[in-house]
Amino acid sequence: MTAPALATRRYGLGAGLAGAALNYFKYWMLAAAVLCFAVPLLIAQYAGIELSAWYYAVNAGKWFTAFVGGGFVFTLLPQMIAAGLTRRELAAAMGVFGVLWSLALGAVGLAGLFAERAYYGAFGWSQGIDATSGIAPIGSAADTAAFAAYLPLLFLAYFAAGTVIGVASYRWEHAGWLLLVPVLPVVFGLDVALYSTEPVGPGWIGFLGRFIDEWGRGPLAAAIVLATAVLAVAARRLLIDVPLRSKQA
To answer: Positive or negative CA dihedral for 119, 121, 126, 129?
Structure first.
């Protein structure tokens, strides 16, 4: 392998991981889309439709993204190092993976919201979210685009959070997962505050959103960028210093 190829293989690996993950999970995404379009049609036989099913599928995708980031790095770390990849190369590859995965899922989220908007419009349904002040409609096409514009950033924040927890779980085998206690409230709280939504899950995860939901989307987006950068730096720092454990006989 030539020197230029060695210097850039981390980026090719990151792109390859993103492509492989998207290809592997494409049927999961297709199944989510089918459910999001079929379930409202069934519910409409008994009740009015006011909530966006796709929005909640996107939210599930954020948590799944955290699992992908953490699960991939936890699994790949010993395998890649054994194959000759350095820790720094793997850290860079995971960064590329996270960015490409988040952009792809953000595009899927945007396309799904617009498709659902047309679908709901054809049946006269309301496309809204469960906000803190009640059900809030997503709005016009421009509002829908603005609403979805933050999705790639949010996916990246969840990916970075999952990666930090995955690396920590490998480094500190029995206690690393405890990092989710400080990490999840920050990421989830910022997410909840950005859309002024009602948090779903244990109250402690989303408590932060109650204190910052009046900031406005600009400052909140900046805070998410900062939190994502901090998490990415922490993940890289942990990854390049992590010792490899020998297998037990």
So the answer is: positive
CA distance 185 to 207: 7
Q: Is the pLDDT of residue 47 over 60?
A: yes
Give 208 or 53, the one with higher predicted confidence: 53
CB burial string 4-26: b at 16+ within 10 A, e below: eeeeebbeebbeebbeebeeebe
**Tokens coding 81:** 């190092």
Q: What is the distance of C-alpha 156 from the center of its chain? A: 6
Return d(Cα 149, Cα 142) in angstroms, integer: 10
Distances (CA, A) of 220 to 8, 27, 70, 202, 223: 34, 33, 25, 22, 5
Residue 112 has φ and ψ, to the nearest 5°, of -65, -40
Alpha helix (H) ranges present in 44-86? Answer: 53-82
Report long-range pairs for 83-88 (Cβ below 8 Å, ≥24 apart). 85/9, 85/10, 85/13, 87/239, 87/240, 87/241, 87/242, 88/10, 88/240
Using one digit for the tens of pLDDT, what is the confidence trace for 192-210? 888 877 655 556 566 666 6
Cα–Cα distance between 82 and 141 in angstroms, integer? 50
What letter represents residue 107's amino acid?
A: A
